Structures are given as C-alpha cells and as structure tokens.
Amino acid sequence: MKPFTYARPSEASEAVAALAADPDARFLAGGTNLLDHLKLGVVEPSQLVDVNRVTSTAIEDLPDGGLRIGAGVPNSDLAADPRVRERYPAVAAAILAGASGQLRNMASTGGNLLQRTRCVYFADPTTPCTKRDLSQGCSAREGWARYHAILGTAADGCIATHPSDLAVALVAVDAQVQVLGPDGARTIPIGELHRLPGDDPTRDTVLAHGDLITAVDLPAPTPAVRNSTYRKVRDRASYAFALVSAAVALEVRDGTVADVRIALGGVAHKPWRATVAEAALRGRPATDDEFRAAIAAELDAAEPVRSPLGGNTFKLPLVTGTVVSTLRGLAGGTA
Amino acid sequence: MTTMDARSMGTSVRRIEGPDKVTGTATYAGDSVADGTLVLHPVQAGVARGEITAIDTAAAQALPGVVAVLTHRDAPTLGDTGDPEHRVLQGTTIHHRGQYVAAVLAEHAEVAAEAARLVVVTVDENPSTTGFDPDAQAYTPSALANGQPPDSGVGDPDAALAAAPVVVRASYATPMEHHNPMEPHTTTATWVDGRIEVFEATQGVESSRQTLATLFDAEVVVHASHVGGGFGSKGLHAGTVLAVLAARTVPGRPVRFALGRRQMFETVGYRPATVQHMALGASRDGRLEVVTHDVVGATARYKEFVEPAGGSTRSMYAAPHRRTSHRAVPLDLDGPTYMRGPGEAPGSFGLECAMDELAVALDLDPIDLRVRNEPEVHPENGLPFSSRGLVECLHAGAERFGWSSWDRTPRRRLVDGWWHGVGVGCGTFPTLRFPGSAAEITFTGGRYVVAIGAADIGQGARTVLTQIAADALGVDVGSITVEIGSTQVPVGSIAGGSAGTASWGSTVVEAADRFRDKYGENPDDGDHADAATPDNPWAGEYAMAAYCAQFAEVAVHADTGEIRVPRLLGMFGVGRILNPTLGRSQLQGGMVWGLSMALHEESVVDPRFGEVINHDFAGYHVASNADVRVVEAEWIDEDDPYINPMGAKGIGEIGIVGVSAAIANAAYHATGVRVRSLPITCDDFLTSGLL
Ligand SMILES: Cc1cc2nc3c(=O)[nH]c(=O)nc-3n(C[C@H](O)[C@H](O)[C@H](O)COP(=O)(O)OP(=O)(O)OC[C@H]3O[C@@H](n4cnc5c(N)ncnc54)[C@H](O)[C@@H]3O)c2cc1C
Ligand code: SF4
Asked: Can you give the residue range of the structural domain that contains A267?
C-alpha cells in the first residue's frame, strides 16, 4: 500500500477545496469501498479527506412531502426510517437487500452512490482494465462476464455494471442529488448522475473531481411509489451483489396500469431506467402478457456477452422473469 | 468382539475450549505474538510459468522499517521432502502463478507490503496451460491421492453395457473449489540456537515437525493449540517454509506470516476439477448389470494430486461388471490437495445423479433402486462389511423426511411461484485408523493427564478424547486433563481422513488399559503408562466404512430460476456417536458445505492470467446463513465391534458426501431440468427453455 496523508476538515467547503487542490486526493466516508481498493492497489490516493464531519446524518422532511437525506446518513439508518419505509418501500428494501448489517452501519448515503463496480478484473490490478486505465483493454469481455452489462454497452468498451442497490431504487423514485463543487452548489437528477461508459469508462458519474454529494432529495411519493418494491436476484440468498435487480413502482386502476416505474440493476454501467417498458405499459391492462411484452421491448437493445469463461445471455430471460414477477406481485398476484 | 462400555461417550459433554473461544482468549497461530515480532510479506510470481532472470531488491531494502529481503540468491539449500511445493526459493523456475519468489521482513505489516511491492522481479515467461479441458491430453497417474490404483475392473463392462436392457450414460462436471477455512494459514516462527519453534495453523503438529526438520536439518518444535478449520488444506505448504526461512535470517526474533484471503486461492491447495463419464446398465427390474465411472481430472504439472473421484463407486452398489478409471490433465497451477470428502464428495455427484437418472429411466423409486443393488460383500474385493447402514439410512431417512408423500413425477408442485421437488443421494467414506500415534497417561495431583499430539481443528478432538479417556479409565471426565496440539507431548497422527478420533482414541484406550493393568484403580501420584497405536486385528478381514443417505427438498423460482434448499436431512450410519452435540455439528457442517458445493462454490481460472479470478469472498461464494434453512443430521443405531474399541466411524467427511447429488436430483424433480454440472445456478433453469 502506498503511503498517503489524512485530513478531517470541519467545513464542507474545506473538503471541496482540499480535493480541488490535489488531483490525487479522495473523499473518505464509511470507507467500506475505498479502503478495500486502497489495500488492493486499485486506487493510490495521495490524501484521504474524511467527510464524516461535513456531511449531514439527518433525514429531514421537505415542504412538498418529500425527504432530504444527508449524505452522511448511514445506510442502516436510512433503511430503518419509518418515513422511508412507508413512503418509499423500494428504497428501504433495496438497502436491506445489500451488503450486511455491519457494512450498512458504516456505509454512507453518498458513498453508496459512488461505490465502484465489482468487476473482478477492475479489482485486480494485475489484469488489464480500461476503467482503471484508459490505455488498457477490457479483460472482462473475454473473461468471467457473468455479472456484466447487457444494456448501454459500447463496442469493445467496458461492460461493468454499477453495483449499488440503493441507486437503482433512487432512480425509480426520481431522487435529486445535491452537490457542492469547487464552483458552488447544484442539483443533479439521479438518473443523470451515473454515466454509460462511452469512450471514458474511468468516469462512473458526471461528477467532477472535488464534487461533494451533500444530500439526496426524495420527491413527494406518488401512489405508485408508495406501492413499490425492490427485487434482487443473486446467486445466493443474501450477501451477494445482484445478477439482476429491479426497483418497481406500480399503480393499477381498474385493471389498467395508471403509473409505473421500472429501474434495473446489474444490467448496465448505470442504474437503468426502463423507459421503453414503462411507456409500453402505461394505460395497458396489468397482465403477465403485457408485462412480458413491455420488458421484451426494453431488451430489444440488449447486447449480452458471450465469453469463453461464461457470458451473460441468461440475463435476458432473467430480467424478463424478474420484472414480470415483480410487477405481478405489485398488481396483487404471486411474485 | 464388543465395543467398550460407554458412560461419557455418547453424551453431549460441552466443548472444553468453548468458553476460551467465545471469549476470544483461545490462542491461534497468529495470536502468539511476542514483542519484536517481524511481519513477513511475500513477493509472488505474476505468471504461471517462466524463469526468473533478475530480482531487484534495492528499493525495498531502502524502505525504512525493512529488516530483510529474501530471494533465491541467498536462501540456503533445503533438505528434500519429496514434495516440490516445499522447495521454496530453491531456484529460478516458476511453476505456478502466486509462487513465492521473494519475501520481505519488516516491523509493520504496511511497510512489509509496500516493500514487497517495490521488489522488481524480471521473468522470461513460458507458455502455460491453466484452464481445465477434459478433452485435452491426459495421462494415467501411478496412483490416486489416497494411494489407491487409478483403475479397477471386474468382468466385461463394455459387453455388459451393450447387452443391458436399460442403459444410462451421462457426464457430470465438478469445478475447482477452494477450502477457505475461517482462519487463513498462519505461521509464527522463531530460530533460537539452531532450534526452530513454530506456532502453526496445522492439521498435524508431528507431520509439520518432520517436514521442517527434514528441510532445515534442525530441531523443531511445533505448537497448534487451536486451529480455525483445516478441511484438508492445512498440511504444510510453501508459506510455512518461507516463514521459517525468513526467521533463520533474524535469530531470536519471531516472524509471523498470515495469509491474506487472495493468497488462500494460490498457495494452499484446492479440490481439482473433474469430469465424470458414467454409464449404468440394468435389467428392467432395476438390478445393475454394470457400473462404469471414468474420471478425467485436473492435476498440477509440478506436483501430482489426483482426486479419487471414482473411488466410492468401487464399493457402493453390487454389479457383476464394473470399471473405474482416472486420467489426469496437468495444469500450470499450484498443487491440488485433499478437501473435505476428497474423491467421495465430487464422485458421489456423478454416481448418485446417474443412479437417479437410471431410476427415472426405469420408472422406479430411487430408494428402491438403491436397495435392490445393495451388495452382500464388497463388490470388488469380496470382503464382508464390518457394518453397512446404507439401506437402514435410506429407510429411516425416507420415513423421517416424508419421502412417500411426494409424487415421483417431476414438475408437479408449484407453491407460491416456486417449483418444489425432493431428491436423494447416498455416500460412503472409509473408516480408517492411522498408525504412529503415542499416548501417555500420568496420574498427578488426583487427575489423569492424557497427552497425545492430536490436533483440534474445531472438530472437538480435545473434548472427545477426554470422554474416551474417562471411559477407558473408568473415571469421570472431570478427572481427565487432555494435552494435545504440540510436539512436546507424544506424537499424534494428523487430523485428516476422518481418522483422527479413531487413531488417537484407539491409542488412548490402549494406554488406559495398560495404566489400569499396571496400577489398578488406585494409582500413586506420578504413575504413568504409555502406548503406541495398536493395529486393528480385523484390518484386511472386513471392509469398513461409514454410509449416509442425504435427502433434499429444493425450490426453484418459476420466473427467475433462483434455486433454494428449504430442507436437508442427512441420515448417517457411522457407528457410535461419541458426542451428539459435537457430532451433529460436524455432520451438519458437512451438509452445509454440500449445499454450498451444489449451489455456490466454483473457482474460476482465467487462463490468460493463470489465476483464480474470483479470488475473494465477493467472487467465490460459500453458502450464507440465508441459504441454509432446515439442516437435520440424524443417525441410525449401529454397533460395529470391528473398527476400533470405541465403535466410532469417522464423521469429518461423510456429512458432505451425497448432498450435491441429492440437491441436483431434487432440482430435477422440482423442474424437470437435469443439471449435470456444479454449481447449479439460475441460468441452468433459465436457459433450459422449461421455466
Ligand atoms: C462485503 C461487501 C458487500 C457489499 N454488498 C453490497 C450490496 O449487496 N449492495 C450494495 O449496494 N452495496 C454493497 N456493498 C457496497 C457498500 O454499499 C458500499 O461500500 C458503501 O455503500 C460505500 O459507502 P461508504 O460510505 O463506505 O463509502 P467510501 O468507501 O467511504 O467511499 C466510496 C467512494 O465514494 C466517495 N465518496 C464518499 N462519500 C462521498 C461524498 N459525500 N461525496 C462525494 N464522494 C464521496 C469516496 O471518495 C469513494 O470514492 C458491499 C460492500 C462490501 C464490502
Ligand atoms: S468490464 Fe470495465 S471494469 Fe471490467 S475489466 Fe472491462 S473495462 Fe475494466
């Protein structure tokens, strides 16, 4: 492990300035992702700027009936908050489907959104990886690609997936991310926070160096959001990242889909809002056949990976099964 | 012939070191840290095959806090143990990725790690093969890992297959798997005046001592009072040799080397991958005419280890014509080794799934099929069985499991969106006794001190030996103190082969008999007796083995293919259970691992890099708590007077055997999808077109 220095500012602006002044400095929140990467040699920061004193740990009511979640709120507190559980069930469920009790106690809201991919090649500095180093190739395409992306991939580029469960649920409920950067504060819709890899997979998000997430706002819940859930499919029953996950919100009136939100995890470089499927479903009968047709339309653009070490073509039927079963459950049937 | 009377044996005496373990005061190999202990960090080969042409240690040596940097250039020539893995820093040839090529000693772990990173190793890389291809050029090994011949045969199996009215042929695949005991391999070593003292995470202090004494031509003392699991991986590996080599350069200062989790995937062995070609031929009424089990397995090019996957097929079922064979494909990886149920665990997947497929082909209950093929004597060597509980396990297990309430037709029960089904798989594991232990009993201060260099790797040896000694001496367990886990007490054989308790226990009983013969019921302080492991007079007269029938209920999600195991029941014929609490925990532990093997465990080698690419617990899954629902281990009453005085068969390995087949068979019953490759995951069902 390379030597580094540590700072613990008491003002958010100081933290931002510290990063702005040092291109190799990194924010440190719970450390559950960053410290692993330090030990593995995936990142080699010159300085860690601890943001635990400068990010709020409060969940506040917003005037419109929404909530403001401080970036320092631990994942476990967020999942346990009665307002979150009642108004945004998918958000609470997504957090509880991730990591372990101990990790959720340490992990922060901001850090969760900015955790890096779990691609095994990314986490092993002895193997080439474009996301770590633009001058290198991608090892996953011809390697162990079981957990990798099927949507939004570029030819020959990075096929990593974003691993956060929370982010998927936040995308389904249209959260807004509050950011303080070297040039001041701004708001970014969560759906625009994470990027597709394009020609620069080193960047997971649109944030610039020194941008500090200060809070995440949840807009007032719609009837669909109140009837939302998170379904995570993985290789074991707990303590594993998603093969595929879905945050789904559904409002059915008189057997017809009045409102629907579908966000998918484990399928793309970012949490994937299934806008094609949503559009196909609105105003249609809430039946298995309609659900299936809608998700099939979404998956038209999918490009699964075939690799000698196991690709991910199975994710096509898996996404379909996951979404159909979750919609059916929210519509009152057997999930 | 009778087994000895039991008073304490058969009761659930509490684990003696339990309070020490739950209060964190039990000392493991890495806990014996004296002041001034140095930390070792290794430098490991980055390629699978090659020659080292240069090593530059200057930057590492210059780092403040670094005490020494070791390379092959300054390492002494080691004695020959016959095991290539022990030739650490003995030359420039790289045999596998992760091989130790240098090491740094420093005062702090961080400094040692950073210095190791600064060592520059220049290598001429050679082409390597690390991916297992069952169709690649294979050779016939001279022996299997358990010493058995690679091939066996009776009659004319090919002709019998051509003539059999009903034939099932199928191939089954099991992947490379890594043990990953909770405690990674750790050594703390000190050289003082030409004597080496080692605190070691090992399954056998004496075998470690012998190996180190041969390598270093020195007096060696090894301690292992507590070991956090071994499962076959805690023989003596290269890391221990490296730590002792390092300690030699700093006489008087302890050196500690604790493996990181990733190093557990490249330096301490694994279960090699197998592909098993099965063929069963039977009459229409379900009598086997022929069984063949042809195994192709991976081995390491530089160190042979051939998983005896076809071994149990030699004794499981009667059939006049039979064949087993083993062929090995050499890979440029570190050496495979014993892993819980070596041979039996993967081999039972092939045989027991094939039996299930035959039952389907015959439209016969799979339990009936097995009962119809129960052999009267060992089908290959003709010996009678000392006891054989398979049929009783099948019947008792079926009863308890509610087997008969299930319709045999697959794909019949859909409950809340999950397809449910049940399956059975059987298993055996040999009942062994290793020679070479010695036990000493001394009466002192009103207590009997029983000393034997046994290893408690979590299985409960300390407790069970106390019970055996108490019954053999005819006293309460409270009057016994057992001293184990060190070469400073009389030698003990390894904790392995499910033979620890049988070997040490037989020795303790012999010593107790001698003690009573010499001193009667009222010994004087200081009276003592000792004994070596007695031979079993019935060895060679009887075939001796444990048996089990494993039952699984499986649920497969109708939309997503997720597979879960709501219920496992293992019914065991293992002789006398010496301690029901500890015994159940051993058997359940094995069953949980069987579940894990069935659904989760797979080491994925990426041949481009020559390494296991999912080399941590994020990538290599073992069953989590949520995967393990109801796991019941039960046993039949079995009195076997021929195996050892206690009448106890080994229970360390049998728990895992047959579980993966039971789960695969239940998955078939649930869904109609036959999965012949482990682990079984959702994609197997999703791509079947059947969900
Ligand atoms: C064993 C294990 C299992 C896991 N399983 C899951 C799972 O199933 N599902 C899941 O979603 N997650 C899982 N995680 C990931 C876990 O959720 C994340 O590690 C955690 O949420 C990160 O939060 P943190 O506060 O610890 O971030 P840190 O590790 O401190 O930081 C992560 C990144 O975010 C940056 N950062 C932190 N705070 C801010 C901020 N306020 N503004 C800008 N940048 C910031 C840091 O610089 C760093 O780059 C798992 C992790 C582990 C170790
Ligand atoms: S998928 Fe992305 S993260 Fe993984 S190896 Fe390729 S470039 Fe790196």
From this structure: 224-330
Average pLDDT for residues B331-346, to the nearest whole number?
98
The residues near B74 (Cβ < 8 Å, ≥ 6 apart) are none
Taking CB atoms and an 8 Å limit, are B110 and A1 in contact across chains? Answer: yes
Inter-residue contact B111 to B304 (CB < 8 Å): no
Which of A37, A53, A69 is the last residue in one of the domains?
A53
- Give the one of A236, A314, A334 whose C-beta lies nearest to B621's C-beta: A236
**Per the residue annotation, which of B200, B289, B602, B653 is the catalytic one?**
B653
Q: What is the pLDDT of residue A2?
A: 80
Distance B474 CA to ligand 1 centre (A): 60
CATH code, residues B152-176+271-431+541-686: 3.30.365.10
User: Per the omega criterion (within 30 degrees of 0), is the bond before A308 cis?
Assistant: no
Give B157-213 pLDDT, tens digit per residue.
Answer: 999 999 999 999 999 999 999 999 999 999 999 999 999 999 999 999 999 999 999
Regarding the beta carbon of A157 and ligand 1, being less than 6 Å apart is answered no
Residue A265: give its domain's CATH number. Answer: 3.30.390.50
Tokens read off for B499:
């033979």
- Contact, A107 vs A164, CB < 8 A? no
At A222, list the tokens.
């719609």
Q: What tokens appear for A144 in the block?
A: 């162990």
Confirm or reject CATH 3.90.1170.50 for domain B32-127+181-260, answering yes or no: yes
- Nearest partner of A230 among A291, A288, A170, A318, judged by Cα: A170
Of B557, B604, B681, the CB nearest to A235: B681
Domain count, chain A: 2
Residues of A in contact with B623 (CB under 8 A): 236
- Pick the ligand that lies closest to the CA of residue A107: 1
The listed CATH number (1.10.10.10, 3.30.365.10, 3.40.630.30, 3.40.718.10) that belongs to domain B18-27+435-532: 3.30.365.10
Report yes or no on whether pTM surpasses 0.80.
Answer: yes
Residue A69 lies in a domain: no
B653 catalytic residue (yes or no):
yes
Query: Are B625 and A313 inside 8 Å of each other by CB?
Result: no
- Is the pLDDT score of B473 beyond 80? yes
pLDDT digits (tens, 9 = 90+) for B258-314: 999 999 999 999 999 999 999 999 999 999 999 999 999 999 999 999 999 999 999
